[in-house]
Specification:
single chain; about 140 residues; mainly beta; eight-stranded antiparallel barrel; 1 helix; about 15% helix; signal
Length: about 140
């Protein structure tokens, strides 16, 4: 009698496992891919953000106020005129009706350079820049 109960229990576990795997998941798979960005770090200057990612193939700028607090912005007028030896990038950050210009100039060997932010005034920051790929 005990063997019959064990056999029925084992059979029911096998059947439940078999039939539960038969059904397709109702969830859509993630649409995550690597996206190239220019990563600005070690930003030195008054009220400087912790880091900035400028997306190269999307109209997007991500600013890190700390290493975990981020704010996203739409970008426009992205232009990359970099050479073999230097980074030369310009992009506009859109905040509502306001446009903030970013001009980046840096050495490709060291990654050191400047970020010039233009609104009603002009502020210059010392930065390090690198090319990265991030999941988006």
């Amino acid at each position: 009698m005990k063997n019959i109960i064990k056999l029925l229990g084992l059979l029911s576990v096998v059947l439940v496992t078999f039939f539960s795997c038969d059904e397709e998941s109702p969830f859509i798979g993630p649409n995550v891919e690597l996206t190239p960005v220019y990563a600005l770090t070690d930003i030195i200057g008054a009220n400087a953000p912790f880091a900035i990612n400028i997306y190269r193939e999307k109209d997007l700028i991500i600013e890190y106020s700390t290493n975990v607090n981020v704010t996203s912005f739409t970008s426009a007028s992205y232009a990359d005129t970099s050479t073999d030896t230097s980074y030369e990038i310009s992009v506009a950050k859109l905040i509502g009706d306001d446009i903030i210009g970013y001009w980046i100039s840096a050495d490709k060997t060291t990654g050191e350079g400047t970020l010039t932010v233009v609104t009603d005034t002009q502020i210059e920051y010392q930065i390090k820049i690198s090319e990265k790929e991030v999941y988006n």
